[in-house]
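User: Predict structure, ligand iron/sulfur cluster.
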Amino acid sequence: MRIIVQNAKCQGHARCAALAPHIFKLDDAGYILPGNIEVAEGEGLTASRGARSCPERALKCDRDPAARVEPDVIPPRVRRA
Ligand code: SF4
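Assistant: Predicted complex:
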């Protein structure tokens, strides 16, 4: 999983870092550091909580496509004679 960081939206609220300081690193002024964040295995839930805590929506979760749960394909109904 990866966190897409949109620095231009960051307003320095530091909520992300308050929830997961080891994942979301801030600069001295309290703004998130530039660059996307590769999330270590087992840290996905913490990272997504931190991303969702951002009131500016500056952080977006990008999950591994292989890990996405696709809805089951519902087969079309078969007409009975
Ligand atoms: S919560 Fe959002 S606005 Fe606040 S520091 Fe983190 S990324 Fe920036």
